[in-house]
Amino acid sequence: MEATKSNTTLYYLESPNSLTFELQDVASIASAAKEKGITTIIDNSYASPLGMQPAKMGIDLVVHAATKYLAGHSDCVAGAIMGSKAAISKIFYGELMTLGAVISPFNSWLMLRSLRTLEIRINRVSETTQKVVDFLAQHPGIAKIHYPHHPSHPQYELAKKDLKIPMGLFSIELATEDPEKITKFCESLRHFLMAVSWGGYESLIWPALAYYEIRKGGLPVNLIRVSIGLESADDLIHDLDQALMNIS
Ligand SMILES: *Cc1c(COP(=O)(O)O)cnc(C)c1O
Q: Which among 3, 7, 52, 51 has a CA at the least distance from the CA of 27?
């Protein structure tokens, strides 16, 4: 809010952000923006439409990286934007006609198939994630956990208010900052692929260590983002446990 200038016309939000998971108070920002005549857009990929419905909280435009939970199988790149008929018409007949990408028929079909299982995938991921987070939070090999629905999160109350379902993406900080140990931990995992993206059927990790440029930008070197997939919670916990044991 303090960054607002006299010529600000747009707030672009993401709550929480999908790397370190700080939240924004979406409803308050939406109402403050309305008073000032500022348009609001939120990237709602983290929460999915099941976790948060920002249009009901006063946000003007909602975008999704449909590549993530909506597609859910790491096999399809797509996006979605939702808003009032007037706002969408303006985008459709303006920018989209000139610059917009068009989803292929095959990818559209993949999306339709995926959407039919969205709710059961999300619920499964949510249940598993809470078990995995509880395991990691009490483990001496973990220094910190960044997860909105864990009581250690500084905005836990806001998370419970805004996000109806605990989702499957969070990050951890290992208790060590030794790059060799961090690498060894990542490479010891058998059920977590090391890759960007998230929200698919298979669990992934994304270590900040792998991206020197970003690391220079201030991320903790021991930060690892985790995306929980559809595997069994026991398998994932066992896998994390043995990888942590490997570097203890
Ligand atoms: C991945 C991602 C995007 C971009 O999605 P693409 O499928 O690469 O276009 C946008 N926002 C968030 C939060 C994401 O995680």
A: 52
67 lines ligand 1 (CB under 6 A): yes
Per CATH, the architecture of 10-115 is what? 3-Layer(aba) Sandwich (3.40)
H or E segment and range at residue 156? helix 156-162
Write out pLDDT tens, residues 20-72.
999 999 999 999 999 999 999 999 999 999 999 999 999 999 999 999 999 99
CA distance 158 to 69: 22
pLDDT score of 215 more than 60: no
Residue nearest to ligand 1 atom 3, measured at CA: 65
Say if ligand 1 is within 6 A of residue 18 CB. Answer: yes
Which CATH code, of 3.90.1150.10, 3.40.50.300, 3.20.20.105, 3.40.50.2000, is assigned to 118-245? Answer: 3.90.1150.10
Angle between helices 179-188 and 233-246 (to 10 degrees): 150
Domain boundaries, the chain: 10-115, 118-245
pLDDT at 199: 97
Q: What is the model's pTM? A: 0.94
